[in-house]
From TrEMBL:
Signal peptide: none annotated. It is found in: Plastid, Chloroplast. This is Glucose phosphomutase. It comes from the Eukaryota. Pfam families: PGM_PMM_I (PF02878), PGM_PMM_II (PF02879). Monomer. Its cofactor is Mg(2+). Keywords: Carbohydrate metabolism, Chloroplast, Glucose metabolism, Isomerase, Magnesium, Metal-binding, Phosphoprotein, Plastid, Transit peptide. Gene3D superfamilies: Alpha-D-Glucose-1,6-Bisphosphate, subunit A, domain 3 (3.40.120.10). The keyword Nucleus does not apply. Residues 48-188, 220-331 form the Alpha-D-phosphohexomutase alpha/beta/alpha domain. It comes from Anisodus acutangulus. One of its GO terms (molecular function) is metal ion binding.
């Protein structure tokens, strides 16, 4: 148990638009005889070696001429044609600075390489877990995630890109190594000559045989969560008037998910606690610079949340998530659980508490730098155990 930390502080097109209800989003059809593809000359750029969590650099690096475009084209040059030709790809991100511009570049290069359709979250928003949920749900060939995870965001800070395959898993090293080799010899970028897509409006935009569908970033992910967890049981706790909690989205991507899930679906009360100076959802609006914060949910960067839970008459439960929504910190009144231990606790109780695992998990895995608590759970439950390069997961 730790004490609370100290507080710190462009070709013409004819557009035919129709409108309809939110459940049947509007469709904008751009009439053109054929999709015009431009071959943009380029040359290799140093430093595009992809790591286990994609390619991460400073925003100003990605904003250099053709830097992002080279990597995206190298990706298409590395994939078998059947993995994308006339297929469906998903696009999302954590809302950080440069995501909007990057989305337009990715869409145009995807169209230029023969992709049939791009499915993108509204305003370019899709958390990393949501992308992994949407890809198999929509039977997509794969998906792009624009994020630098828990790294700070803003013009002076970080940006990143990674690609997930058809089951939602990160691209294997065999592909990322091939992408890098292709960045060393790239000479052209295939880019469709189309205008920027309005990512703020739900609906479909078509350019010849290529289309972009802007979707609700929460819907498919929430549907999956309802199949995995017992929402009725969770609702019976969260909606109780004597249960108090605070969730800190750190002005990152999970801010878009907090209200639809906690309040609209689980019945929590969106209240402001005057005597304790906290809201049930803190920092719930995704911002391009994460509100000048560092979206890493730990005792240092989520210090406001820690102080609330360690304060006098603090709430019963607290949680925070990182920039792209795949890491967490869990707290109770005057105590906290590290992410390494939280996944071990979930694994130990999965069969009894989580409907999806009613037959029990088949195996457990953790990344190399993660603590050994999950190893002990696997040993106790006599489950297969794997040490992998990145991520925490059940099988």
């Amino acid at each position: 148990m730790f004490p609370p930390v100290k507080k710190k502080r462009s070709v013409p097109f004819v557009v035919n638009a129709t409108s309809s209800s939110p459940s049947s989003p509007s469709t904008t059809i751009v009439q053109s005889q054929a999709l015009k593809i431009n071959s943009v000359p380029t040359k290799p750029i140093e430093g595009q070696k992809t790591g286990t969590s994609g390619l991460r650099k400073k925003v100003k690096v990605f904003m250099q001429d053709n830097y992002l475009a080279n990597w995206i084209q190298a990706l298409f040059n590395s994939l078998p044609l059947e993995d994308y030709k006339n297929g469906l790809l998903v696009l999302g991100g954590d809302g950080r600075y440069f995501n909007r511009e990057a989305a337009q570049i990715i869409i145009k290069i995807a169209a230029g390489n023969g992709v049939g359709k791009i499915l993108v979250g509204q305003d370019g928003i899709l958390s990393t877990p949501a992308v992994s949920a949407v890809i198999p749900k929509r039977e997509a060939n794969g998906g792009f995630i624009s994020s630098a995870s828990h790294n700070p965001g803003g013009r002076e800070y970080d940006w990143g890109i990674k690609f997930n395959y058809s089951s939602g898993q990160p691209a294997p090293e065999s592909i990322t190594d091939k992408i890098y080799r292709n960045t060393l010899s790239i000479s052209e970028i295939k880019m469709a000559d189309i205008p920027d897509v309005d990512l703020s409006q739900l609906g479909v935009t078509k350019y010849g045989g290529f289309s972009v569908e802007v979707v609700d970033p929460v819907h498919d992910y929430l549907e999956l969560m309802e199949n995995v967890f017992d929402f009725s049981l969770i609702r019976s706790l969260v909606s109780r008037p004597d249960f108090r909690f605070v969730f800190d989205a750190m002005h990152a991507v999970t801010g878009a998910y907090a209200k639809p899930i906690f309040f609209d679906k689980l019945g929590a009360s969106l209240v402001y606690h005057l005597c304790m100076s906290y809201m049930s959802i803190a920092n719930g609006v995704p911002l391009e610079d994460f509100g000048h914060g560092h979206p890493d949910p730990n005792l240092t960067y989520a210090e406001d949340l820690v102080n609330i839970l360690y304060g006098e008459n603090g709430p019963d439960f607290g949680a925070a998530s990182d920039g792209d929504g795949d890491r967490n910190m869990i707290l109770g009144r005057s105590f906290f659980v590290t992410p390494s231990d939280s996944v071990a606790i979930i694994a130990a109780n999965a069969q009894d508490a989580i409907p999806y695992f009613q037959s029990g998990p088949k195996g457990l895995a953790r990344s190399m730098p993660t603590s050994g608590s999950l190893d002990r759970v696997a040993q106790k439950l006599n489950l297969r155990f794997f040490e992998v390069r990145t991520c925490l997961l059940f099988l």
